[in-house]
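Q: Convert this sequence to structure tokens.
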Amino acid sequence: MQRLKISTTTFTFLIVLGTLISITPNFLQTSLAQQITTDLTAPTGDSLHGGDKKGSLEMSVQNDTVIATAEMDVPPANEQVYEGWLEDKGDASGYSLSLGKFNQDDTLSVNQTMVNPYTYTVFYVTAEPVDDPDPNPAGVVAGAPLSSPFGQ
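A:
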């Protein structure tokens, strides 16, 4: 059997090239992450948002994982808790997905993998009764539209 001889320079080049090829997909996925930072505002008319500022939302999507932090400026009324939601409004299904209740410092933290997070067009917050058995959203207190690439 004949042995293949390569120089140290060629060997080093191949190692570097292989490393670059292996990290490129992770770099591209990270660089394509979508970040949203916006105010949560009171509902106006038929819209879930557009009024006075009530809180803030930071959200990013990386590899179909939604990472979000929502904060409300004012605590909920007695015997109520805040709950965060995503919804695909407009021509879509109108489905509302609960992201869970806010904690005692009026913050919601989300780290959830979804099949297609970009179908959602709006994030909103409801005030729900404590220990609410109804899985549907109650009264909307704040919301924010999700900009492109959301709404696909």
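DSSP finds one helix and eight strands in the chain.
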